[in-house]
Design brief:
This protein is an alpha+beta fold. The chain has one domain: Nuclear Transport Factor 2, Chain: A. 41% of the residues lie in helices and 23% in strands. The chain has a four-stranded antiparallel sheet with strand order 1-2-3-4. The radius of gyration is 20 Å and the shape is elongated. The chain starts with a helix and ends in an 11-residue tail after the last strand.
């Protein structure tokens, strides 16, 4: 069996089209936001603060007045005594508006039994409103999204929490 130049060209072209279609599917903004959010949650679950920080934009600000440094510090402190953390999301929706995207969903927390975990689960799992994560695309690269804000109208930070 001989391979002709035309057959080789057609096979290469078909492979290139398949790869191109896969990349178009992979780099859709909605998919990128869902994957970035899942990866951020996994980084938090594994207490990989360097990886978590890589998802957060330098100009991050949330409804509680936290900037990037403060939210990373709060995550380290808040999850310090929590073991076996698992974060999942349900009823997720993503709205994309050019270079901005809004991820919205209920966040569910679980983990090893401890007093800290029980308090965290009680606070987060009982929230009646979804969390909203605001993402912004920083460059022309389709995977270059960073978290710029988080909000949940049901969460109130106590005044004595620094």
């Amino acid at each position: 069996m001989t391979i002709s130049l035309r057959g080789l060209f057609c096979g290469g072209l078909a492979a290139a089209v398949c790869v191109g279609l896969f990349l178009l599917w992979l780099w859709r903004p909605e998919r990128q936001i869902k994957r970035h959010t899942e990866n951020l949650f996994h980084a938090i679950e594994h207490k990989d603060w360097t990886a978590a920080a890589s998802f957060i934009a330098d100009d991050y600000h949330d409804q509680w007045g936290d900037d990037r440094a403060r939210v990373l510090e709060r995550m380290r402190e808040g999850f310090r005594y929590v073991r076996g953390l698992q974060i999942s999301a349900s009823r997720v929706s993503v709205q994309v508006h050019q270079r901005r995207a809004q991820w919205s969903g209920r966040i569910w927390i679980d983990g090893d039994q401890s007093e800290s975990m029980e308090l965290l689960k009680e606070e987060v799992n009982s929230l009646p409103t979804p969390f909203e994560l605001e993402w912004r695309r920083l460059s022309g690269r389709p995977w270059d999204w960073k978290l710029v804000g988080v909000s949940n109208s049901s969460v109130e930070m106590p005044a004595n929490v620094e």
